[in-house]
Amino acid sequence: MDGRLGGRLVIATHNPGKLWEMRALLAPYGIEALSAAELGLAEPEEDAASFAANAKLKAQGAAKAANLPALADDSGLCVDALGGAPGLHSARWAEISPGGPRDFSTAMDKVEAALRKARATPPFRAHFISAIALAWPNGRSATFEGKVDGTLVFPPRGKLGFGYDPIFLPDGLTRTFGEMMMQEKQAMPADGSSPLSHRARAFQAFARACL
């Protein structure tokens, strides 16, 4: 990267959970984070073929519209027995109606039903992946990825976090992401090792390059 980021930044999301998490990650760096929703920016159609491409699409759209650097995340749950689904369509699985409000309790039920239909047997291997893209108004961009492996558990456990967190049990741990405080998942180890969550891992790579 040619230079360091500072000042104001747009978080290109309308998801309150993602916004809260990204603001918390950025807070130690003294960056003022504005949201796409606060600025009245439209949500682009996420029709790219990868998480990184979707994140780049969102970041570039917000950077151009706001004339400020913009940060976007695209993330999802990929289940081995479902051929990587819901994957890029993780948010869509939660839509009550096409393009409508999202209910991740319903989405988690859909995952469990799909596993039954596929006659999959435990352990249900899966991973979370997050791609973070940073874009500038001049079109320049960079992307960073983070991944965490684990298994799915049913019924869901915990009411913390958001999305599919209550059914995801990270490898080597006994609590799901839904049973962990956000601060625990986000914490950056002092020794430089990887944090717990996929988004924090992607952010760690972004921070090393840009902050």
Question: How would you portray this structure in words?
Answer:
The chain has one domain: Alpha-Beta Complex (Maf protein). It is 28% helix and 21% strand. The protein has five helices and six strands. Helix 1 links the parallel strand 1 and strand 2. The relative contact order is 0.16.
CATH architecture: Alpha-Beta Complex
**Percent range for helical residues?**
25-40%
Strand content: 15-25%
Major sheet strand order: 2-1-3-4-5-6
Distance between the termini: 10 Å
How does the major sheet shape up? Answer: 6 strands, mixed
Shape: globular
Number of strands: 6
CATH class: Alpha Beta
Radius of gyration: 17 Å
Structural class call reads alpha/beta
Into how many domains do the coordinates divide?
A: 1
How do the helices and strands line up, and which of them pair or pack?
Blueprint lengths: L7 E4 L4 H11 L5 E4 L15 H16 L3 E10 L24 H14 L6 E12 L5 E12 L15 E3 L11 H5 L11 H13 L1
Parallel strand pairs: 1-2, 1-3
Antiparallel strand pairs: 3-4, 4-5, 5-6
